[in-house]
């Protein structure tokens, strides 16, 4: 009998004393992702990349059948020549970016499945030489529930783009893909033109700017996206 897929779920850290509300939000998303993975009968390990040796993180990612790169703080703008100061710049996690970039580049080089979510899709783009819009409005709200219900429009005829367009998605971001990284293409956008999904043209590596792991939709939206990368 074949073994269930092993999923490495990469996030930044398990504690943010300086931002407890944000930590609680990310914990909620991580828990919903793990629940959705377990509901499929798959095995998952949650990996905080700032709390493990970098070599161990890379090895865990290589040993997994698929990697999920989760959300968090903005990508360090120094890594893509962006503005050092901008509205909502907040804190950055450059070490987490560097380790995750290595994981992403490994996945591309070895053609191993990887799905990047929110900050993850921005990391995917920057890791492959792209840039970001440092600040934009309309895709996050300052409220107890920061998620904006968004309609996604396929830019290319891909299964992941169609899955995103099949039902309204949950967005919460003030940055977005600007110039595309090497061998990436846009597969879906929001109505205002914001890039909402990208994929590598040669490897089973893709990213979505929305949150398929939001607890309101995780069991319906996350697994189908992962499954498409596993069968590519």
Question: Any overview of this molecule?
Answer:
It is a single chain. With 232 residues, the protein is of the alpha/beta class. It has one domain (6-230): 3-Layer(aba) Sandwich (Rossmann fold), CATH 3.40.50. The chain has six helices and twelve strands. It has helices at 20-39, 54-63, 94-110, 119-127, 159-165, 218-230; strands at residues 6-11, 43-48, 66-69, 114-117, 132-133, 148-150, 152-154, 169-171, 176-177, 184-190, 195-200, 205-208. The chain has an eight-stranded mixed β-sheet with strand order 2-1-3-4-12-11-10-7, sandwiched between helices. Helix 1 (20-39) packs across helix 6 (218-230), helix 2 (54-63) runs parallel beside helix 3 and helix 3 (94-110) packs across helix 4. The chain is globular, with a radius of gyration of 16 Å. The relative contact order is 0.16. The mean pLDDT is 96. It holds the Pfam family Peptidase_C26. InterPro entries: Class_I_gatase-like (IPR029062), Peptidase_C26 (IPR011697), PuuD-like (IPR044668).
């Amino acid at each position: 009998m074949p073994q269930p897929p092993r999923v490495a779920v990469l996030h930044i850290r398990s504690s943010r004393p300086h931002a407890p509300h944000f930590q609680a939000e990310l914990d909620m998303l991580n828990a919903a992702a793990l629940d959705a993975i377990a509901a499929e009968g798959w095995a998952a390990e949650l990996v905080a990349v700032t709390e493990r040796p970098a070599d161990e993180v890379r090895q865990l990612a290589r040993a997994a059948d698929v990697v999920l790169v989760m959300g968090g703080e903005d990508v360090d703008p120094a890594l893509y020549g962006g503005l050092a100061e901008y509205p909502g710049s907040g804190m950055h996690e450059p070490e987490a970016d560097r380790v995750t970039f290595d994981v992403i580049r490994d996945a591309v080089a070895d053609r191993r499945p990887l799905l990047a979510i929110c900050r993850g899709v921005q990391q995917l783009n920057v890791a492959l030489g792209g840039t970001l819009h440092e600040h934009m409005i309309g895709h996050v709200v300052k409220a107890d529930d920061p998620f904006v219900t968004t309609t996604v429009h396929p830019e290319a005829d891909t299964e992941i783009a169609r899955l995103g367009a099949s039902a309204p998605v949950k967005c919460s971001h003030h940055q977005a893909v600007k110039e595309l990284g090497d061998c990436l293409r846009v597969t879906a956008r929001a109505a205002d033109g914001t890039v909402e999904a990208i994929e590598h043209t040669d490897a089973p590596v893709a990213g979505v700017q929305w949150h398929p792991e939001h607890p309101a939709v995780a069991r319906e939206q996350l697994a189908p996206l992962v499954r498409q990368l596993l069968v590519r």
